[in-house]
Design a protein that fits this description.
Layout: H1 27-49, H2 119-123, H3 129-134, E1 140-141, E2 158-159
Antiparallel strand pairs: 1-2
């Protein structure tokens, strides 16, 4: 029988040399005995360590005398926190109202009627929306005193609307 761990030789090669006779078995043959012996020792060790548990552990916990524990709860009331003081800030604002009278256009009549317009429309003039808000007139609708196209940015007929 041939050794399965050797490489095959061509037919015209010389025969391999004989193994030395000093060894009793090859190296791989020793592993066949050592590994199963180690496994057997391992299982014997587990069996020896898994002996009967202590008989004291089988007793219920209530059978052993133990100190008693008493819990006392103390209820304390805490005072409601006081509300934070209210801070009121007052600002003083200077308001400058400019009133400008517009002259009549050429050819307009000075009498009543549709030609000249009323004196209320031209008696109030606001340079910007800040002045109109400060005077308490915002929002100003078209036809009211103080309305002007420069106060109506979106052209909807309401000046200083936002």
């Amino acid at each position: 029988m041939t050794n399965p761990y050797t490489t095959p030789q061509p037919p015209d090669a010389p025969p391999p040399a004989a193994p030395p006779t000093g060894r009793a078995a090859p190296r791989w043959a020793r592993k066949r005995y050592v590994l199963p012996a180690l496994a057997l020792a391992f299982f014997i060790g587990i069996a020896a360590g898994a002996g009967d548990p202590k008989k004291d552990d089988a007793k219920p916990a209530s059978a052993k005398p133990r100190p008693t524990v008493t819990v006392t709860a103390t209820a304390t009331e805490t005072a409601d926190p006081e509300p934070a003081p209210t801070v009121t800030e007052t600002r003083k604002v200077k308001v400058k109202v400019t009133v400008t009278a517009q002259g009549q256009a050429d050819g307009a009549t000075t009498g009543g009627g549709d030609g000249g317009g009323s004196s209320d429309d031209s008696s109030v003039y606001y340079a910007n929306c800040t002045e109109a808000r400060a005077a308490g007139a915002a929002p100003i609708h078209r036809g009211e005193p103080g309305y002007a196209p420069h106060l109506d940015r979106d052209g909807d007929g309401i000046g200083c609307d936002s």
